[in-house]
């Protein structure tokens, strides 16, 4: 079974392009009625995985090198082809890069000797270069295979591809031949293909899952399938700064989280069809929808939640709320910084709340 | 000499310890156990002595008390030395399987299996836990050894992280032993944490082989719950309760699945039953969070969330921050 999967993978370069083109055509068809399908492909989620030749990072950095311990790493790009190479001076492993995970920072799932590996080295935008993949800092490679990457099972690979691509996972199978890079419409909106078919047949009999009606709690569970749910984090006993990248978990440990209040769900602040806003002021009216001063009803009306109960207003400010109450937190390894979604009053010297 | 010394001075703890140690070394397990019991009465937190008494009890066939002592000894630090660690963790795993805690045994082997091994007894032992036979490797009839050894090798490959080799080994086993109960269950149990969908597929195969396999029904319900397939989970939980009314794990699954499928009040009743006897069961409180949110009781949901975080911290011994 494993071998058959890997054989399928070997033909990917040819097959993926056809599958991907079909998916792009499908998305264009969606965009005819749903304008959000026009912007979504350019979002980080829409580009969660990039195929050879599409990747700006690798195109802009044709040679990336780093020396770690006894090993030299190089990621080299010629035209559409990139290779990942590790050597200890005596032995060398070099493989093509087929799947580039991430837009700003990048890790690679590699194949060697019939197995999947997560690259030991990743690209970080903050340094414009390579360093140890976050989470692998404690690994001291004993040989070149370990230095090459962390071997992962087909099951782990399913999780990676399942969140970074569309159409690669079906039930128990990982089928990279049908992969579409990044998140296309049906990754989240189950039933899209049937809906498209029905529409082309002049029918409106099938409507994909209406995600806009999910409660804040349900949104956390839905988005958390990839971004990790509160329950996953608790059940897995995850602690410490590494949890800052699990936004639904962090949001739901916030004192103000209420699973039935639409003002605190993922979609209250983020439209997954648009690029993420890095302008802190953009989020102010989201906060003020609950925390507006008593005489300010504008924010509440803008949020469409005027009838919901209000929380205490901030005595310090009514702008740039996020800069104080959702502090930026650096993960172990130092290259990745995330906004902590545990909304709180942060006091100097406070430990990272778990 | 030690025997005479402790007869004269029963409060001399070192005397009891060395007496127990010497008698264990000479295979005199009854007097060794008794000497160590005296020592433990004088030094109740002496992990190595508690664990050694457990090993005496193991040799005497007193398996439940052996397991209790080995686990207590490990908890008190007896396994901190690498050599002792290997012996104690192995015996802990053997004893868990021998006393019917097969999943606990597999979890113990997972901690134990860190280095390459070609030890056939270890493979048989893992096979016994996987196929749910409450036996020690030495008690297994010779004609059954190949099945258990191959099963153990497949499980060992998985526990060592070579999941591709494990998949191939299990596929061969399924072809060679298509009607053996618990074979698919064992693989499903291993897969559950990383791939609930793959575990579900194995459990469906298991229930074809053994339709009333309670553990498989429970795990199938659990795997569905992990995939948010609560209607399907409810079906398995109901079937498990029909076979074994009052089974806590099945009631917990019922509670969670009912809450998730809209029967919140009824679900809470199941959860309350478990909570009354297992107040620190994390899964019960995770389900309460969902139930109270469904009932729009944010304060109760918040309280349960905080309790879940506390219980999760306690499970791994992380101090509150």
Summary, kept brief:
Chain A has helices spanning 2-10, 12-31, 36-39, 56-60, 144-148, 154-164, 185-188, 192-200, 216-227, 230-235, 247-253, 266-269, 284-291, 298-303, 321-325, and strands at 49-50, 63-68, 71-78, 81-87, 92-96, 99-101, 107-112, 115-119, 121-124, 129-132, 149-152, 165-166, 169-170, 173-174, 180-181, 328-330, 337-339. Chain A has 354 residues and is of the alpha+beta class.
Helix content of chain A: 25-40%
**pLDDT averaged residue by residue of chain A:** 88
Low-confidence stretches of chain A: 1-18
Strand order of the largest sheet of chain A: 1-6-7-8-11
Largest interface: A-B, 34 and 32 residues
Number of strands of chain B: 0
The main β sheet of chain B shows up as: none
Number of domains of chain A: 2
As an assembly, this protein is heterodimer
Q: Average pLDDT of chain B, to the nearest integer?
A: 91
Q: Find the structural class of chain A using helix and strand composition.
A: alpha+beta
| Count of β-strands of chain A | 17
Q: Radius of gyration of chain A from the CA trace?
A: 22 Å
Q: Per CATH, which architecture of the domain at 1-78 in chain B?
A: Alpha Horseshoe
Instruction: Note the total helix count of chain A.
Output: 15
Poorly predicted runs of chain B = none
Choose one word for the global shape of chain A: globular
Main sheet makeup of chain A: 5 strands, antiparallel
Structural class estimated from helices and strands of chain B: mainly alpha
Can you identify the CATH superfamily of the domain at 1-78 in chain B?
Tetratricopeptide repeat domain
The separation of the N and C termini of chain B measures 53 Å
Protein architecture, described:
The complex is a heterodimer of chains A (354) and B (321). Chain A is of the alpha+beta class and 354 residues long. Chain A has two domains: 2-48 and 103-178, no CATH class; 213-339, no CATH class. Chain A is built from 15 helices and 17 strands. Chain A has helices spanning 2-10, 12-31, 36-39, 56-60, 144-148, 154-164, 185-188, 192-200, 216-227, 230-235, 247-253, 266-269, 284-291, 298-303, 321-325, and strands at 49-50, 63-68, 71-78, 81-87, 92-96, 99-101, 107-112, 115-119, 121-124, 129-132, 149-152, 165-166, 169-170, 173-174, 180-181, 328-330, 337-339. In chain A, the strands form six sheets. A five-stranded antiparallel beta sheet of chain A has the order 1-6-7-8-11. In chain A, strands 2-3-4-5 form a four-stranded antiparallel beta sheet. Chain A has a two-stranded antiparallel ribbon with strand order 9-10. In chain A, a hairpin with a 2-residue loop joins strand 13 (169-170) and strand 14. Chain A is globular and about 70 Å long. In chain B, helix 4 packs antiparallel against helix 5, helix 6 (82-98) runs antiparallel to helix 7 and helix 15 (248-260) runs antiparallel to helix 16 (264-277). The model of chain B has no long low-confidence stretch (mean pLDDT 91). The longest helix of chain B has 19 residues, at 298-316. The radius of gyration of chain B is 23 Å and the shape is globular. With 321 residues, chain B is mostly helical. Chain B has a domain at 1-78: Alpha Horseshoe (Serine Threonine Protein Phosphatase 5, Tetratricopeptide repeat). The A-B interface holds A 1-2, 114-115, 151, 153-156, 158-159, 171-172, 215, 217, 221, 230-231, 234-235, 237, 239, 252-253, 255, 257-261, 351-354 and B 161, 163-164, 167-168, 171, 191, 194-195, 197-198, 200-201, 228, 282, 286, 289-290, 293, 296, 298, 301-302, 305, 308-309, 312-313, 315-316, 318, 321.
């Amino acid at each position: 079974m494993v071998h058959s999967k890997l054989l399928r993978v070997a033909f990917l370069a040819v097959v993926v392009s056809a599958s991907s083109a079909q998916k792009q055509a499908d998305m264009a068809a969606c965009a005819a009625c749903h304008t959000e399908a026009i912007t979504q492909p350019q979002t980080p989620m829409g580009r969660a995985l990039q195929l050879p030749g599409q990747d700006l990072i690798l195109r802009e950095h044709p040679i990336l090198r780093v020396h770690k311990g006894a090993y030299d790493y190089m990621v080299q790009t010629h035209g559409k082809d990139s290779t990942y190479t590790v050597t200890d001076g005596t032995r060398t492993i070099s493989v093509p890069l087929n799947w580039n995970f991430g837009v700003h920072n990048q890790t690679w799932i590699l194949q060697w000797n019939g197995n999947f590996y997560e690259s030991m080295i990743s690209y970080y935008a903050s340094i414009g270069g390579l360093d140890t993949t976050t989470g692998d800092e404690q690994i001291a490679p004993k040989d070149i295979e370990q230095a090459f990457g962390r071997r992962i099972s087909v099951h782990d690979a399913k999780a990676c591809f399942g969140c970074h691509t569309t159409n690669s996972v079906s039930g128990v199978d990982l089928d990279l031949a049908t992969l579409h890079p990044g998140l296309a419409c049906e990754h989240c909106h189950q039933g899209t293909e049937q809906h498209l078919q029905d529409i082309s047949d002049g029918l409106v009999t099938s409507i994909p899952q209406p995600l806009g009606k999910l409660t804040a709690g349900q949104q956390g569970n839905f988005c958390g399938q990839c971004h990790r749910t509160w329950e996953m984090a608790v059940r897995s006993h995850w602690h410490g700064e590494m949890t800052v990248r699990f936004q639904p978990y962090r949001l739901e440990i916030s004192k103000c989280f209420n699973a039935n209040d639409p003002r605190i769900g993922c979609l209250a602040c983020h439209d997954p069809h648009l690029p993420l806003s890095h302008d802190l002021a953009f989020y102010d009216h989201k906060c003020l929808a609950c925390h507006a001063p008593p005489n300010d009803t504008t924010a509440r009306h803008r949020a469409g939640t005027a009838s919901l109960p209000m929380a205490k207003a901030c005595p310090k400010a009514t702008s740039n709320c996020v800069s104080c109450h959702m502090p930026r937190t650096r993960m172990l390894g130092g290259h990745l910084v995330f906004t902590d979604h545990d909304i709180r009053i942060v006091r100097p010297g406070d430990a990272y709340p778990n | 000499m030690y025997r005479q010394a402790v007869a004269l001075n029963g409060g001399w703890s070192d005397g009891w310890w060395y007496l127990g140690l010497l008698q264990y070394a000479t295979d005199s397990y009854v007097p060794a156990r008794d000497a160590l019991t005296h020592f433990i009465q004088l030094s109740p937190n002496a992990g190595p002595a508690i664990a050694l008494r457990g090993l005496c009890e193991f040799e005497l066939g007193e398996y439940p008390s052996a397991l209790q002592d080995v686990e207590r000894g490990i908890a008190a630090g007896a396994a901190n030395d690498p050599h002792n660690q290997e012996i104690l963790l192995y015996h802990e795993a053997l004893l868990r399987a021998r006393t019917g805690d097969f999943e606990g045994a597999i979890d113990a082997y997972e901690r134990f299996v860190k280095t390459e091994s070609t030890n056939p007894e270890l493979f048989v032992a893992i096979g016994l836990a996987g196929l749910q036979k409450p036996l020690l490797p030495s008690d297994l009839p010779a004609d059954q050894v190949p099945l258990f050894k191959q099963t153990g090798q497949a499980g060992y490959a998985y526990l060592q992280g070579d999941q591709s080799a494990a998949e191939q080994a299990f596929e061969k086993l399924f072809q060679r032993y298509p009607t053996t109960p618990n074979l698919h269950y064992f693989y499903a149990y291993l897969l559950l944490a990383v791939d609930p969908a793959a575990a579900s597929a194995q459990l469906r195969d298991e229930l074809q082989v053994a339709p009333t396999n309670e553990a498989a029904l429970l795990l199938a319900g659990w795997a569905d719950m992990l995939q948010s397939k609560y209607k399907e989970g409810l079906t398995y939980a109901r079937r498990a309760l029909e076979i074994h009314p009052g089974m806590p794990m099945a009631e917990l699954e019922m509670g969670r699945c009912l809450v998730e499928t809209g029967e919140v009040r009824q679900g809470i009743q199941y959860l309350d039953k478990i909570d009354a006897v297992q107040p620190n069961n994390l899964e019960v409180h995770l389900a309460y969070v969902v139930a109270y949110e469904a009932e729009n009781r944010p304060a109760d949901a918040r309280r349960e969330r905080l309790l879940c975080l506390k219980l999760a911290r306690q499970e791994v011994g992380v101090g509150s921050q």
